[in-house]
Amino acid sequence: MILYFSGSGNSLAIARQLAEKLDERVMSLYDAVHADLQGETRIGLVYPTYWLDAPMAVKQLVAQLVLPKNAYTFIVITCGAQTNNAVWSVRRILKQKGVRLNYCHKIRVPDSSAIAFGRNPNDQAWKFDKYASRIDLIAKEIADKRNRLHFSEFDPFGWILNTKTLSQKAYRLTLPAINSEKCIGCGVCTKVCPQANISLIDKKAVMSDRCTLCLACLHFCQQQAVEIAGKPTIAERQYHHPNVKLRDLLRRE
Question: Same domain for 197 and 98?
């Protein structure tokens, strides 16, 4: 079983590719919290790096999982460049649950958070071809039950950035907000948000305080009504994995 967390579709796409090569099933981490995984002999976690660490939602969800302790367990990180503490922090949670991490690796993909800094994630499509062979390598090593931990070491800079004071400041740098003048109340953002952080009030989208910075709302809003730091969102810079559609990421009620 391969469990994933995905905002722009990158991690879902990688999870699907690995599942096809390994003859596995894929399941959202949100669904996995309520699933019986005890019969699984192989458990994979596929998720991105946010702010030099695993997304807060991923750490919270993994902590809730009931996992078999004798399964071969692996992590594959999707990232713009570095994994930093994305493996290390989840590995600690698994260890606390008595689960050994057998294998981890990373796949570089277009950085969907680049839009927050005025860059176009779509300009990074070259990563798909460059790192396609790595997916084959990862799948082979997992199939062979290799025990190899790539990119799992503790990163002190990532830890410092995620201390409470600095993480709150960093969080605000990429925190999306609704431009009510552009919002038409279509409800797409409410359905694509994995955290159920957005609701419609008087036909306008309103955000709560559970944002995990996946930016799915920003990238899928056809009105460009979701913005970061008050800067207009440019349609040509909105991104999602080309093999993942909006319907694939809609939250199940």
Answer: no
